[in-house]
TrEMBL record:
Pathway: Amino-acid biosynthesis; L-threonine biosynthesis; L-threonine from L-aspartate: step 3/5; Amino-acid biosynthesis; L-methionine biosynthesis via de novo pathway; L-homoserine from L-aspartate: step 3/3
CDD domains from the UniProt entry: ACT_HSDH-Hom
Domain of life: Bacteria
Protein name according to UniProt: Homoserine dehydrogenase
KW DNA repair (keyword) present: no
Pfam families the UniProt entry points to: ACT, Homoserine_dh, NAD_binding_3
Cofactor: a metal cation
Known catalytic reactions: L-homoserine + NADP(+) = L-aspartate 4-semialdehyde + NADPH + H(+)
Organism of provenance: Paenibacillus phytohabitans
Length: 428
């Protein structure tokens, strides 16, 4: 049987995992697709670099265009990362009728609609399962598993680095900076951790999940983002005392046909299944109108989990190739985009305030909430052993984001409040 020929762009940890799975599981894979799968060419940055796996040197090039232009190659697997240059390679490969498997969330979040439109024009597949939550088959699940349902909510822990940091802070009472340093030493966090800790990586993944879940074109700029660099060990201790865990949650919610999407450190009720997802693991909780609650858990990164998703995509492309149906299963968003305004986004809030410890202060503060019609769930005051301030912890009932913005602006003007120490979204 004629082999299906694959061009690999990138041979780093994930690319190495792809070669290992394709070669190691060849018998099983070729039985599934009906022909051998051959990694024909590999583009790398440095051809001299020593590799963990043995690769025939004649397959290796440092020019990705050689791979893209090779007429023998049917499918391009892109694991080199990057945005502008990589987009050019992928668009040119599609122009030449090659199918694409990519792990590139940055590219898909920023240019997914252009790439998918080109794929449709050329009747090619573009699969990107590994771009969100590495080894968890969440993209296929949203496209196929939920095709009969209406997804109302997606909550994701889709960034392993921040989940590792917050889990350690919660379990060991450690500070953000200490755990970040440890995560960098262990290789979990990058030397420049900005994209992970400030929520950008998670926002890109949530834009992809939102697009698929709500079948509308969710762009990165639709996602409101805040990261974990301001989360203190005291915040986490308060969260635990109130029965919550702190997680960097991506939350995409739909009501009628309008949706909101955000990434922020969130206090989630400890009994919620996603609250117990710790360490570098990822999880995606999906609430479907008909099915109710579901949750998908697993490794969000790492060579072999990510490679598993990539090779599964490769199998899907080749099965389509055999059936002659490539390019027919793309989800091109078909719903008009309707973003909720801040008046229509509701959630509970946690606030920690440092205030004067004297008569009438609490009344002045609660008056502000009443003025903007924000109802309170609980108010607790405690003495602070480190300074003469009192600490006031306030948890609201569901309140609109717009009302809470007004409350926050007003609280900032109150001179009895020395500091608004923390403000978090509360779920569950
Ligand atoms: N930097 C990501 C994370 C892994 O920490 O989850 C790749 O998406």
């Amino acid at each position: 049987m004629k082999p299906v020929k694959v061009g690999l762009l990138g041979l780093g940890t994930v690319g190495t995992g792809v070669v290992r799975i394709v070669e190691g599981n060849q018998e099983d894979l070729s039985s599934q697709v009906g022909s051998p799968i051959l990694i024909e060419r590999i583009a790398v940055k440095n051809t001299e670099k020593p590799r963990e796996i043995e690769v025939d040197p004649s397959k290796i090039t440092d020019d990705p265009w050689e791979v893209i232009r090779d007429p023998e190659i049917d499918v391009i697997v892109e694991v080199m990362g990057g945005i502008a240059g990589t987009k050019e390679y992928i668009l040119e490969a599609l122009e030449r009728g090659k199918h694409i498997v990519t792990a590139n969330k940055d590219l898909m979040a920023l240019h997914g609609s252009e790439i998918l439109a080109k794929a449709q024009e050329k009747q090619c597949d573009v699969f990107y399962e590994a771009s969100v939550a590495g080894g968890i088959p969440i993209i296929r699940t949203l496209i196929e598993g939920f095709s009969s349902d209406k997804i109302m909510k997606i909550m994701g822990i889709v960034n392993g680095t921040t989940n590792y940091i917050l889990s350690k802070m919660s379990q060991e009472g450690a500070s953000y900076l200490d755990v970040l340093k440890e995560a960098q030493e262990l290789g979990y966090a990058e030397s420049d951790p900005t994209s992970d800790v400030e929520g950008l990586d998670a926002a890109r993944k949530m834009a992809i999940l939102g697009t698929l879940g709500f079948r509308t074109n969710v762009e990165l700029s639709d996602v409101s983002v805040s990261g974990i660099s301001g989360v203190s060990k005291e915040d986490i201790a308060f969260a635990k005392r109130l029965g919550y865990e702190m997680k960097l949650l991506g939350i995409a919610e739909r009501q009628d046909e309008e949706f909101s999407i955000s990434v922020q450190p969130t206090m989630i009720r400890a009994s919620h299944p996603i609250a117990s997802v710790n360490g570098v693991y990822n999880a995606v909780y999906v609430y479907g109108q008909a099915v109710g609650e579901t949750m998908f858990y697993g490794a969000g990164a790492g060579a072999m989990p990510t490679a598993t998703s990539i090779v599964a995509d490769l199998v899907a492309v080749i099965k389509n190739l055999k059936l002659g149906v490539n390019g027919l299963k793309q989800i091109v968003p078909y719903k008009q985009k309707k973003l909720k305004s801040d008046e229509d986004i509701f959630y509970k809030n946690f606030l920690l305030l440092h205030v004067d410890d004297k008569a009438g202060v609490l009344a002045k503060i609660t008056q502000v909430f009443a003025e903007y019609d924000v109802s309170l769930d609980s108010v607790v005051q405690q003495a602070n052993t480190n300074n003469p301030d009192a600490e006031i912890i306030i948890v609201t009932h569901n309140a609109s984001k717009a009302s809470m913005n007004k409350v926050m602006r007003h609280l900032e003007q109150l001179n009895v409040i020395h500091r608004i120490k923390s403000h978090y979204r509360v779920e569950g």
